[in-house]
Structure formats: C-alpha cells, structure tokens
Specification:
Elements: H1 2-8, H2 11-43, E1 53-58, E2 65-68, E3 75-77, H3 91-94, E4 99-100, E5 104-107, E6 115-119, E7 125-129, E8 132-133, E9 158-161, E10 167-168, H4 177-184, H5 188-194, H6 196-203
C-alpha cells in the first residue's frame, strides 16, 4: 500500500524525500560532533591558577624566626587578638599583611599544624601562625632583615615570631641601629610609616 501511495506522488516530491533524509542525518551528525568537541573544553583546567604561600624558619642571632620562602621576616602585632587582625588604614602601609591566594605550607622548621588564615574586610586571606595574624615590615628590603623588630609603631609592639609560635622580644643583631631607633620613640614608626614610601619601594623588590 505504501508503494502505491508513493507511485501517486509527483516526481518532485519523490526526489525530495531522500534529500531531506540526507540533510537530517547530516544535521544529527553535526550536532553530535559539536557536543563531543565541547566536552574536553569544559574539563580543561582554569587559567587563573593559585600560588601557595610558604612560611619557613630563618636563623637569627636571637634564635630562629619565621620568614616567607624568600627569607622576608614576618611579624606579629600585640594589638591583635587570637585569629583577629586590628590593623587597618595607615598601619597597613608600613605593615602589609602576609596574604595568600592558595594553600599555606610550612618548611624548614615551621609547623604546618600552626598555620591558618583569616579573612580580612577586603576579602583577602591573611596568614596566621598559632592564631597570630602575620605581617611584613615595609622597611625590610632584603632576606633576613629584621628592621621592624621591637617597633612600637601605632601604639603596640611588633615582634618576630619563633617557630614555636611565640613572640621573640630580644633584639636581633642583624637589625642593628635600626631596631634601636624604632624602639627609641613611639612616634618614630608612625613617621617611618609615612616615609615607608622609601621602605615600600625597597619592599617592592620582594615581588
């Protein structure tokens, strides 16, 4: 019956049936190909990969103290609470927080179990050690420098951090006269914060 029906159709319609079937098959094949091609792209790694921050121990005359992987000293501020940073505004110009965009790892005597992070008001992750938020000092321009040790800037003391998580309150000989100057007057670090433009330019070499 289907053959008799086909026989009654005009010639143009008869020729159009196989053409339409071929176009439909090609369209299906193309759709399948595009779906398959999109799968690897969706599984590709994101382009904005994060970088780990490393905290390690560095030898000093007053005992080992914590640094980053480049040897830059890190400090705690006695004005802070446990896992809480109170440093804001001008303080951060002289004492930038140690932040991370990836994992935080320990090396060379630092303890991985004591590392953590807190979220600052700007959304950045600040590294902590045994609950102490960590900071750099803008006046340190080279590995092992501890020019911020014992500073009384912004109303509270800044100390190097021992691998045990305690503050080091003894002057480091590498600091020399700079530590004594920072300790001599409560107002000196505030002015150094203003002059930290020079410190910042030196600190900029840390990358």
């Amino acid at each position: 019956m289907s053959m008799s029906l086909l026989g009654r159709l005009p010639m143009a319609v008869k020729l159009g049936v196989p053409v339409a079937a071929g176009l439909l098959a090609a369209a299906c094949g193309t759709a399948a190909g595009s779906t398959g091609a999109g799968t690897p792209a969706s599984g590709a790694p994101a382009s904005g990969s994060t970088t780990a921050t490393v905290i390690e121990s560095h030898a000093g005359s007053a005992g080992p103290f914590l640094t980053n992987s480049s040897g830059r000293a890190v400090y705690l501020w006695t004005a802070d609470g446990m896992n809480k940073s109170t440093a804001q505004g001008a303080v951060l110009g002289a004492w930038p927080p140690v932040t991370t965009k990836g994992h935080v790892t320990a090396a060379n005597g630092a303890k991985a179990a004591d590392l953590g992070t807190i979220t600052r008001s700007d959304g950045s992750k600040q590294v902590t050690y045994l609950g102490h938020p960590l900071y750099y000092f803008a006046g340190d321009s080279g590995p092992g420098q501890t020019n911020g040790q014992g500073s009384n800037g912004f109303g509270a003391k800044w100390w190097l951090v021992a691998p045990a998580g305690t503050k080091i309150t003894v002057a480091d000989s590498a600091t020399g006269a700079a530590a004594a100057a920072a300790n001599s007057s409560p107002t000196a670090p505030a002015s150094s914060g203003g002059s930290s433009a020079g410190g910042s330019s030196a600190g900029g070499s840390w990358g």
